[in-house]
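STRUCTURE:
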């Protein structure tokens, strides 16, 4: 019976995967058609050229960015591009700009955390670019530890306002893109204080600059934080610093979808579950995974073309030299990166499906799959961005000395991409979040609770721990089922080993800190399994 159940499980999973891939394939085909059309539109526009970008001074580069952003917005409106088409247009302009944070963080967060009334007030202004928004969360002293943020928003019941302050040097907002020069407004995160009680971190919509002359408003100290790594690259983005000195905002500019402060100053949780806020996070991280595939594809394309054209050694009797791509050492370094680019593309498409599925379930107040969705997006964001950053550098090496030239495109691509390993969650911190999810899942196995989704393989823990690889010849590794079971066996064994080691500690947090390196490796194994299975 166990064999029959296992076979039925595999058939059911296979059919589910087929159904998923049908949805992904149809969506991918449509996206590809839109993408190709917009790519040609951008490539044919002389204003959007980028061949001289790395030679510009910082001031010239930022002016160039402003010019492109304004021109792009004009073209988007003239051509009446859809939201999807406009997103592709900005993607192919291929220059980090304040608009990235406006459309990628400011707008989605208001949609996710604002009440219906707040959305009606702020979103039309944002959609028309009548205000320019940024996302002011990270501070000089705290990044990944959001609960450690120091900026305060204290409610004043006499005036029905919040008073924002930056009480310490380390409470200065630091790094938000678009903040340095362009943003007129921010979703700013601060500790919500009413009647002396700290209610934790909440988001507030704060106007930073005048809509008449663009000067900072009273109490606002704001500016650009300076040059970043590389020529061109992320230096087109005006990452900024922000400090508040008794800045007053109306009470209704607190984003109040999940919690409100009444006119009397009472803090009240709404009947909207706080879990709904995770939808925005899933969306952003899903986008980052898709971007990893794009960046890696570009690097691999450059390295592959170079390897095909470049010839070195192997000449006999004055004949042509050997193409670099024909050397096994070049292939063993390049081809796995090519495979990874495809794999990340597939898992990125699957994450789009996951985001749609999670969104629908959240709207129906079904939060059962939320922990898994959080673990998936956190882990895949970490895995794909780290692998892509390393792969871009490897592609530079694969191009020899020519890869070091800015003209190759690789140095700037590397410089503009590596921040992805840090923003939206430090990659190691995210892996440890995944590890906590895995340890909880393993701890529930003895109770008979059946793991689902990407952890369903843990339900076959006994088999996977005991099974041995029965590969007899090299060709056996071409069978997907063989590869998948190998990844499943590795992932479950690493997770269970960590859980067993963790159980030896009387204080679980001490154990988690002591075993953090092993736990991170177990999380990587689980995330690699997800990529392989998609």
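SEQUENCE:
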């Amino acid at each position: 019976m166990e064999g029959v159940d296992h076979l039925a499980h595999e058939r059911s999973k296979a059919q589910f995967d087929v159904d998923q891939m049908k949805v992904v394939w149809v969506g991918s085909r449509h996206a590809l058609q839109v993408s190709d059309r917009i790519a040609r539109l951008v490539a044919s526009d002389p204003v959007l050229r980028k061949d001289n970008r790395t030679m510009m001074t910082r001031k010239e580069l930022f002016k160039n960015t402003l010019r492109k952003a304004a021109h792009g917005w004009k073209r988007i409106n003239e051509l009446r591009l859809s939201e999807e088409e406009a997103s592709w247009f900005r993607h192919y302009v291929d220059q980090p700009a304040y608009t990235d944070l406006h459309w990628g963080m400011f707008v989605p967060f208001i949609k996710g955390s604002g009440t219906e009334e707040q959305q009606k007030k702020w979103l039309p202004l944002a959609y028309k670019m009548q205000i320019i928004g940024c996302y002011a969360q990270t501070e000089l002293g705290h990044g990944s530890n959001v609960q450690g943020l120091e900026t305060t928003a204290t409610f004043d019941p006499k005036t029905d306002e919040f008073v924002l302050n930056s009480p310490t040097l380390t409470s200065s907002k630091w790094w938000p893109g678009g903040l340095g020069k362009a943003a007129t407004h921010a979703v700013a995160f601060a500790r919500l204080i009413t009647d002396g009680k700290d209610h934790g971190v909440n988001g507030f919509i704060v106007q930073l600059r005048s809509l008449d002359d663009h000067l900072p408003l009273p109490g606002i100290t704001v500016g650009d934080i300076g040059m970043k790594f590389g020529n061109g690259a992320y230096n087109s983005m005006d990452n900024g610093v922000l400090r508040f000195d008794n800045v007053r905002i109306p009470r209704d500019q607190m984003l109040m979808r999940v919690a409100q402060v009444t006119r009397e100053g009472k803090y009240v949780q709404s009947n909207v579950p706080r879990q709904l806020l995770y939808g925005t996070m899933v969306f952003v991280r899903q986008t980052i995974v898709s971007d990893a595939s794009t960046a890696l594809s570009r690097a691999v394309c450059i390295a592959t073309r170079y390897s095909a054209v470049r010839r070195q050694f192997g000449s006999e009797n004055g004949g042509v030299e050997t193409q670099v791509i024909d050397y096994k050492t070049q292939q063993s370094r390049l081809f796995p990166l090519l495979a990874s680019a495809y794999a990340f593309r597939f898992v990125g498409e699957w994450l789009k499906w996951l985001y749609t599925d999670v969104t629908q379930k959240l709207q129906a107040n079904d939060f059962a799959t939320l922990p898994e969705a959080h673990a998936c997006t956190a882990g895949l964001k970490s895995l794909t961005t780290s692998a892509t950053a390393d792969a871009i550098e490897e592609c530079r090496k694969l191009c020899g000395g020519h890869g070091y030239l800015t003209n190759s495109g690789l140095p700037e691509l590397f410089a503009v991409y590596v921040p992805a390993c840090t923003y939206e969650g430090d990659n190691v911190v995210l892996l440890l979040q995944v590890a906590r999810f895995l340890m909880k899942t393993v701890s529930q196995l003895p109770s008979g609770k059946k793991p689902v989704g990407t952890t369903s393989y843990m339900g076959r823990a006994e088999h996977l721990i005991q099974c041995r690889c029965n590969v007899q010849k090299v060709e056996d590794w071409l069978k997907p089922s063989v590869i998948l079971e190998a990844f499943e066996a590795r992932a479950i064994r690493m997770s269970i080993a960590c859980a067993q080691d963790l159980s030896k500690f009387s204080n679980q947090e001490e154990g988690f800190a002591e075993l953090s390196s092993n736990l991170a490796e177990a999380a990587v194994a689980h995330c690699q399994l997800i990529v392989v299975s998609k």
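REMARK: Residues 1-18, 20-25 have pLDDT under 50 and may be disordered.
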